[in-house]
Specification:
There is one protein chain. It is globular, with a radius of gyration of 18 Å. The protein has one domain: Nucleotide cyclase, GGDEF domain (Alpha-Beta Plaits), CATH 3.30.70. Strands 1, 2, 3, 6, 7 and 8 form a 6-stranded mixed β-sheet that branches. Strands 4-5 form a two-stranded antiparallel sheet. By secondary structure, the chain is of the alpha+beta class.
């Protein structure tokens, strides 16, 4: 791109096996209405904590969608088995896959604790407007974690391109995160 070459987004994707995490900021609509212009700093400060922890535990932040973050732990090629006829991808049962799964779960548990003790989050937990709107307010996340295949690739047009992951397994991670509200828990794993 720096050389002025055109980037062609119309390329097929790559089938991968990954662990997908969705993370959603709780009470975001109310926080947005109270914080107004300050909501960008709010999301970016939470994002900084999320991204740092996920990166420290072998994951990668893929995208931020307003109050939600898509996080990915990619399995290495040697940890996947491809069916020669169908092209289906499965994770091998091996120590590396188990360790990556453990690291993804551990990162989410550490993230929950980190938000509670973060000095950056204290100002929001004691914010007068947030507490008037939501008494006892605390910055919290809902988290969903799921393993499966996806297609990794560029999505967009010549005007805008995003790297992304598409599959029912990515959607499952998002649905698990959404279900944390119904179950009254911060984290669901499938």
């Amino acid at each position: 791109m720096a050389l002025g070459d055109d980037v062609n987004p119309m390329m097929p994707g790559t089938k991968l096996f990954c662990i997908y995490g969705f993370c959603d900021i709780r009470n975001f609509t109310d926080a947005t209405e109270v914080l107004q212009e300050g909501v960008m700093l709010f999301v970016n400060e939470i994002g900084g904590i999320v991204h740092e922890i996920i990166d420290s535990y072998s994951g990668a932040a893929n995208k931020n969608i307003g109050d939600a973050f898509l996080l990915v732990w990619k399995l290495e090629e040697q940890d996947m088995v491809r069916d020669k006829k169908t092209g289906d991808v499965q994770a091998k049962k091996c120590q590396r896959v188990a360790q990556l799964a453990d690291m993804s779960l551990l990162s989410f548990i550490i993230l929950i604790a980190a938000l509670k003790k973060s000095r950056k989050m204290i100002k929001y937990n004691i914010h007068k407007g947030l507490n008037e709107r939501m008494p006892g307010y605390q910055v919290k996340l809902g988290l969903g974690l799921h393993m499966g295949y996806s297609i990794e690739g560029a999505l967009g047009s010549y005007y805008k391109i995003d790297a992304t992951y598409l599959s029912p397994h990515v959607n499952m991670a998002a649905r698990l995160e959404g279900a944390t509200k119904a179950f009254g828990v911060p984290l669901l794993v499938h």
